[in-house]
């Protein structure tokens, strides 16, 4: 193979693939990155099929050459698979599961990559079959870009993938999905769906909500000040806008589908922000310094934790 | 000069310096960067004197060799200067002005670099002399580090420096300070002190307040979740922590001294966040998408504006 030398060492020792035929429904940022990983690094599946309802997305995936087959009919595709991975927005997981589950082979594994877990599991549960193991997963990776062009084979490297298996999920199915994500370069952790949703509410969903909100607050200012926000954004505002560039439909769904955990974290945050406002109004220096010190402490822990 | 080739082209054509003797009171991140700029690029002052109350800071500045003289007595130092630049925390501007102004030469210029302008001007005004022009300035540059070791000569390049002259500030004094900052590589803009404070409240002070607050909210969570916040911070939370690493005393002072503008912006933000919470609770998809779209629009404008 002429391009062998430029490939990572991992592919020099071919691993037997985890699956025979992997179907990725929704080859967007995450789905197309899984397809690319399978193609470029091996070890995931002998054959990968991409399914999408959009003719434009299908045409683009064909052009990119990242799947062995590109299909419009999910039922037809999943009938060939021993693993089906749903990579659609969290709001679409239920309807798509309703469509694919009846067509799946007995023993084939269903998995998905939704950013919320309690609501996605609730949406999928009515359609589950006893002979199709279901392994909910959440690869915590992404960029502010979306669509099949945005993916890349190393997206998941050193990123976390959280598994939230159900009480009755067979351990072999969990192990297969764990191996698949390990071969994508991810670090794995297991937790309950409810705990997952609380953790993601504070580390991801609340920061995004605050980022969208402050952009809106700035956008509502009088014209002169608004244009200056753009000029002078480097002073802190800019840091909040990178994550505010993310896909609106995806985030609408996440906010609505992790509602309870997100509203709880937002309520805690609002109490803390009100307390800070009160300390500023009344000149409570000790309170202000204490809160700032905590921020610095967390930053320091992140640096020590090699997450910064 | 053996190291001439590694220097920027600008220093090849020596400019007559703006000042004879520049005194920098408080050689921290900003002050030491001005000293380094004067030393490495020329054109600012023939002679630079650093003043600090801390023996440790004075010793360090002497070691670094970034000032012609390092002094403890501000009055003694400023008596030699035709420009005195106060680079102390905004809360210290008044007391330091009270100390230096009586000792300044007639016609010498007083300037400062405070991040809030209305309150700093109020604090300095009682000590002003009719024969000492005062030019308030705010170089919008910084890192999360502080102290004389944190500075560097190119800190101000392509960054904004806002001038907020008073009605009676002589235009020659404003021009001299403008030229000084231009020679530091900064872009200049003039505005009123009150407008400055509103703009900085939204682009800098509110983002910092939110960043400190969310770190505190995370820190208050149960131990297990808190440790996971650190593990999974890459999902958005991390972006908020960089600015939360800034100096606590500096930020305490900024929050207290830009209280009115900051509380107004925070109140607007809280209303917007409450509206978002309500939309999430009641499933108002159109509202949520509209707010997210605005965030994306602002991000896009920043990229077009080359500020991202």
Automatic annotation (TrEMBL), chains A, B:
Residues 20-308 form the Prephenate/arogenate dehydrogenase domain. Pathway: Amino-acid biosynthesis; L-tyrosine biosynthesis; (4-hydroxyphenyl)pyruvate from prephenate (NAD(+) route): step 1/1. It comes from the Bacteria. One of its GO terms (biological process) is tyrosine biosynthetic process. Transmembrane segments: none annotated. SUPFAM superfamilies: 6-phosphogluconate dehydrogenase C-terminal domain-like, NAD(P)-binding Rossmann-fold domains. Its EC number is 1.3.1.12. This is prephenate dehydrogenase.
């Amino acid at each position: 193979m002429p391009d062998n030398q430029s490939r990572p060492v991992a592919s020099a020792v071919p691993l037997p693939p985890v699956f025979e035929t992997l179907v990725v429904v929704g080859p967007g940022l995450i789905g197309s990155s899984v397809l690319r990983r399978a193609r470029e690094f091996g070890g995931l599946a002998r054959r990968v099929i991409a399914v999408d309802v959009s003719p434009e997305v299908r045409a683009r995936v064909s052009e990119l050459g990242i799947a062995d087959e590109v299909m419009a009919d999910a039922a037809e595709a999943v009938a060939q698979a021993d693993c089906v991975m749903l990579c659609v927005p969290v709001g679409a997981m239920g309807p798509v599961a309703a469509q694919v589950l009846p067509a799946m082979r007995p023993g084939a594994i269903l998995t998905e990559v939704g950013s919320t877990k309690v609501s996605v599991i609730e949406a999928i549960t009515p359609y589950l079959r006893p002979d199709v193991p279901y392994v909910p997963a959440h690869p915590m990776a992404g960029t502010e870009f979306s669509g099949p062009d945005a993916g890349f084979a190393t997206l998941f490297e050193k990123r976390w993938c959280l598994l939230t298996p159900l009480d009755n999920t067979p351990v072999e199915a969990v192990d297969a999905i764990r191996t698949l994500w390990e071969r994508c370069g991810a670090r794995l952790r297991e937790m309950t769906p409810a705990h997952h949703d609380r953790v993601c509410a504070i580390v991801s969903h609340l920061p995004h909500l605050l980022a969208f909100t402050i952009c809106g607050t700035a956008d509502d200012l009088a014209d002169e000040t608004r244009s200056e926000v753009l000029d002078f954004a480097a002073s802190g505002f800019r840091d909040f806008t990178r994550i505010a560039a993310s896909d609106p439909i995806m985030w609408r769904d996440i906010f609505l589908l992790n509602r309870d955990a997100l509203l709880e974290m937002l309520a805690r945050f609002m109490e803390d922000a009100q307390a800070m406002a009160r300390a500023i109004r009344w000149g409570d220096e000790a309170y202000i310094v204490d809160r700032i010190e905590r921020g610095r402490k967390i930053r320091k822990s992140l640096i020590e934790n090699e997450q910064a």
